[in-house]
Amino acid sequence: xxxxxxVNGNVAVITLNNPPxxxxxxxxxxxxxxxxxxxxxxxxxxxxxxxxxxxAFSGGADIxxxxxxxxxxxxxxxxxxxxxEGSDKPVVAAIHTVCMGGGLELALxxxxxxxxxxxQIALPEVxxxxxxxxxxxxxxxxxxxxxxxxxxxxSGTPVPSEKLAKTALFNEMIEGDLLAxxxxxxxxxxxxxxxxxxRDIKVNYPNYEAFLQFSRNTVKAMSGPFPAPxxxxxxxxxxxxxxxxxxxKFERELFVELVQTTESKALRHAFFGERAASKIPDVPxxxxxxxxxxxxxxxxxxxGGGIAMNFANAGIPVQILEMxxxxxxxxxxxxxxxxENTMKKGKLTQEKFDQRVGLITGTLSYEGIGQADIxxxxxxxxxxxxxxxFKKLDEVMKPGAILASNxxxxxxxxxxxxxxxxxxxxxxxxxxxxxxMKLLEIVRGKKTAKDVLATTLxxxxxxxxxxxxxxxxxxxxxxxxxxxxxxxxxFLLEEGCTPEQVDKAVEKFGFAMGPFRMGxxxxxxxxxxxxxxxxxxxxxxxxSKTADLLCEMGRFGQKTGxxxxxxxxxDRKPYPSQLxxxxxxxxxADLGVExxxxxxxxxxxxxxxxxxxxxxxxxxxxxxxxxxxIDMVYLTGYGFPLHRGGPMFYADTVGLPNVVMAMDKxxxxxxxxxxxxxxxxxxxxxxxxxxxx
Length: 693
Ligand code: 3HC
Ligand code: NAI
What we know:
By secondary structure, the protein is α/β, with parallel strands linked by helices. It has three domains: 3-259, 2-enoyl-CoA Hydratase, Chain A, domain 1 (Alpha-Beta Complex), CATH 3.90.226.10; 295-470, Rossmann fold (3-Layer(aba) Sandwich), CATH 3.40.50; 478-686, N-(1-d-carboxylethyl)-l-norvaline Dehydrogenase, domain 2 (Orthogonal Bundle), CATH 1.10.1040. The strands form four sheets. The chain has an eight-stranded mixed beta sheet with strand order 12-11-10-13-14-15-16-17, with helices on both faces. It has a six-stranded mixed beta sheet with strand order 1-2-3-4-6-9, with helices on both faces. Strands 5-7-8 form a three-stranded mixed beta sheet. α3 packs parallel to α4 (102-109), α6 packs antiparallel against α9 and α18 (476-495) runs antiparallel to α24 (600-620). 1,4-dihydronicotinamide adenine dinucleotide binds at residues 298-304, 321-323, 327, 378-381, 385, 388-389, 406-408, 429-432.
């Protein structure tokens, strides 16, 4: 049973029991209605308490049921709430830990609500691209007032129950045992009549029209491509402008509209994608993890410093090892400066600053780091240097320590082979700036032990990263795919585009930054260095030499004051460069390519479908475990627009047969070899399926 029924004296207790968060799926909804019937039919029962077992009152509607017949099957959440609110025996919600979405809406349908302190109270639907669809937009303003309810509904942010203790949301805060307190409360109100109903409260707000207009303007400016926040305002407005039942009907219409939008589907995909990423089919969830109480980082450069900050931010002491005092001092000073900047922005207290800086120490000696539970290597990207470092780590690290490499392109299996304990070696590929970017690619070597993987995944959560497991291949998931994207960007320049045109088209699609602005920010010389190695190794792969010509002009990007764009001193704004555009045009002429006008649609399709096609290879080779893992890599590490759900999800929304058709068209152009559909893509398209089922 997903809800249990018990009678305690003359009070019936309905306990939601649908782990992990008592989601209000169809069977739970049915069980609540059944419980209500029993209680109403039993003359000995004078009052009813609804509560939740385990670690939640309720996390809300079961999101997995959305867009399936179960979501609409009777009893719907509306029906459940009507049964509760219409009950002629008082119903008390006993709230603890988590009370969100449909869970809060159910509580608002009860006649009374009691809660313990520390419960997270929220209507977080907006974060899933929808709005509260079971009366939340109509009832919450009636207990919290228009302004506070609107803020909660538009932001979706949880508020601790004790902060709402004095509002009409709660009748009593319970200290100690919740159920005992709720039963005692039920005893007190068992005979009180008439039963209070939230729907009967009137929302008052002087000059509400001006407030609502202000809210619409602000929310519109902040919600970007997402339609839900503005609809939330409209629904909340109805709580004051319409009669209760009309408001409910209006809310329902908006909910049904939003739940079908691609934006909402993309957000739900990301919600489940993030959670799925931490599951590895052959590594059971109860795999014991190794304790990580101390860490070491080798190399205090760009990445080493940021990686060390992650440990310190999570309260884990970390030592940074460098070869020379000067490099160490420079690295430690950069870390300090980063923290100081955060403090200046008011995002870090002096106390936290002292704590974090105090957790980071420097050393020049391997002897001192041997007892660390994990060591992350972030030295130069050179196999010879990695070999030296890993041989040394094998000598000095205690048994059971995890030996991680932050390599971005090198073979983790080869790195592991430099040690006598390859099972302890794993790739931890952080993204720059490592203290900011959410993504952590966890590279599973052939011999990486299961508990090492489980520990690294757990660590990624502890340091607030999205950990995604990748197999070993050149570039892992993210960089292997971006190579195809960059190739297309280069070809587009040769065929008629300017860097600005490509960037603008991609940014209009929703990317945080187009490929050329990104190149200027990261440094064009990094790609130049990689290409020199890669295309010598793989001469069969065609690529545009435009970026090499740019580097030969010394235009490495913002750091040299010039890249694909011109920059003015002290100004990061890119200005189109006549010099670069002339170079590009000349290069087309040298190649004998007649430049043509290229549409934004073609630009976006060529860049994004190139990603999805490489993603399909990665999936069928088993480098990624699931399509949503690839999407998580792109959403959290590469600025892919969240409302598009990631490259694989986006390809699904376009329809894989349409993707293949577009690819066939581009295959007839230059460099047609790039457009051969991966066998998995071709197969799924032929079967009318998507990457995500
Ligand atoms: N429906 C289905 N599954 C849910 C769920 C929900 N509403 N909320 C959480 N889960 C699942 C997660 O997918 C995860 O499953 P897994 O173990 O198989 O991966 C599991 O519950 C645990 O979730 P977390 O890892 O997130 O656990 P935490 O303890 O960190 O957080 C939580 C718990 C705060 C409840 C968090 O899961 C959360 O924010 N959930 C979403 C809440 C939400 O958005 N509710 C609104 C739903 S829409 C709605 O109610 C519509 C209504 O207005 C009609
Ligand atoms: P960096 O050049 O900024 O820093 C490397 C540091 O390692 C230098 O301070 C150097 O003195 C030190 N070092 C070199 N050999 C050493 C040794 N034997 N012992 C101790 N210290 C040594 O390089 P960066 O950018 O931090 O890169 C480090 C690693 O991270 C590389 O493997 C790189 O591929 C990877 N990476 C880099 C990213 C980036 O955006 N910079 C992103 C993701 C991964």
